[in-house]
Amino acid sequence: MNKVTVGLIQASHEVHGDEPIEVHKRTAVEKHLRLVQEAASQGAQIICLQEVFFGPYFCAEQKTKWYDAAEEIPNGPTTQLFQDLARELGVVIILPIYEKEGIASYYNTAAVIDADGSYLGKYRKHHIPQVGAGNNGCGFWEKYYFKPGNVGYPVFDTAFAKVGVYICYDRHFPEGARLLGLNGAEIVFNPSATVAGTSEYLWKLEQPAHAVANGYYVAAINRVGFEAPWNMGEFYGQSYLVDPRGSMVAMGSRDQDEVIIGVMDKELIQEVRDVWQFYRDRRPETYGSITSL
User: Fold this and answer.
1) 48 is annotated as an active-site residue
2) Measuring CA to CA, which residue among 271, 274, 269, 267 is closest to residue 244?
3) pLDDT value of position 141
4) Which of 25, 122, 125, 162 is catalytic?
5) Beta bridge partners of 9
6) Which among 51, 61, 142, 186 is annotated as catalytic?
7) Active site residue 125
8) Per-residue pLDDT tens for 85-104?
9) Annotated catalytic residue 266
């Protein structure tokens, strides 16, 4: 299968942050079940949701309340629900949720579910920001909620393509993007929650550069709208699929709930890698000091 249809889901979250966690999760899960079904009806074979899709971007504040949102993977109810959906629709789903392991280890994680509903594994976000944003003490206070990822940079051999995952802030670090390519990724998904301001101009710059440097497709997903009570900035959507030449295949709106559909062409991956021999010409024997400086 040389051509694969990719569906990216961007959505708003209108439930006020003061509401109970179960209200947030129920509302978000119901919305995303509909959106996944819509993506499948449009022919999507691999579907990716946005970062911590089943609620608001709660890292805008630092409250113990949100620890209760975390679930086990794959034994938690949300992963199992979307395994059933993937099996029913015959689609691959990249499912970013808040993960709890053991007594009190928490991760920003994406589960990868194959088209037969089987759980293939997980990626845990490696790079964890702790950065102020907006007003009233809001920010990307992720170190309060997440441990750094510890499962490496896996690539999952799904029914339709070899899939890698990078999550939000990870996109600012080229090292992991290269490792995903070296591990065989044909497409890398980057589910995000990022607001207008400092990094917006990088949104359409960094990830196309990763696609070119590594000869694979990148799918970048961002939520939309403002989330109360924090209102720390506009989640500016514009989810997109970019090819190994750095050309945009498909892009979403700035402010609408929607499914973005794009087609990846595996023959183009090989064509670009044959022309730009970045993997052949790399010099790993000269890079050792990168881990010690």
Assistant:
1) no
2) 269
3) 97
4) 125
5) 259
6) 51
7) yes
8) 999 999 999 999 999 999 99
9) no
